[in-house]
Design brief:
It is built from three helices and ten strands, in the order E-E-E-E-E-E-E-H-E-E-E-H-H. By secondary structure, it is of the alpha+beta class. Strands 4, 5, 6, 7, 8, 9 and 10 form a seven-stranded mixed β-sheet that branches. A three-stranded antiparallel β-sheet has the order 1-2-3, with no helix packed on it. The two termini are 36 Å apart. The mean pLDDT is 94.
């Protein structure tokens, strides 16, 4: 494949549409439309997988998502600000979305891509232990979040629900936690 042109179709601060023109393996001209963060930094965002030490529970959020027109179960997440490390962004986002504080970073993934047919967005999964009392006092006006904490049994019950919308990363981690009691 040979990408020979990229055209920015929209001009927004955090997400844009890009048309890539390329030649396929037979030499035919093709185009592909995708969403792009157009960030020089990789990863663009952090997704925090928090385990609450005192409660001995996995922390997830139930958040309203406009594209879904409803609530989705996911993990706290956000864009990495210029000059900010993944760990700094993770600490900030966890506190802003849940009121919880990072005690220890357990594991950090490299840049990973969750929907590369639609977007070039990359994220880093940041597994952390956390502490504190959950609250949503620091949520932005555009965020409607409910913090939830699941034991292993509650995680198993949750993933069996057919009326819950899950972020793919969250479902995979919840399934692992429900099966093994381990987050990492």
């Amino acid at each position: 494949m040979d990408i020979y042109e990229k055209e920015k179709i929209t001009d927004y601060p955090h997400l844009n549409l890009i048309r890539a023109r390329y030649k396929d393996t037979a030499g035919a001209d093709k185009s592909w439309l995708y969403a792009s963060r157009q960030s020089s930094a990789r990863p663009d965002a952090v997704v925090i997988v928090p385990f609450h030490q005192q409660e001995n529970k996995l922390v997830i959020i139930k958040e309203f998502r406009v594209p879904l027109g409803g609530f989705q179960y996911g993990f706290p997440a956000g864009l990495v600000d210029p000059g900010e490390s993944i760990v700094q962004a993770g600490r900030r986002e966890l506190y802003e979305e849940t009121g919880l504080t990072v005690v220890d970073v357990i594991k950090q993934s490299p840049a990973i891509f969750s929907s590369s047919g639609l977007t070039d967005e990359s994220i880093s999964l940041l597994y952390v232990s956390c502490d504190g009392s959950a609250n949503t006092e620091n949520n932005e006006a555009s965020e409607l979040i409910e913090v939830k904490m699941f034991s292993q049994g509650q995680a198993a019950d949750c993933i069996r629900q057919d009326n819950i919308l899950f972020d793919v990363k969250t479902w995979i981690v919840l399934d692992r936690f429900a099966s093994t009691g381990q987050v990492v």
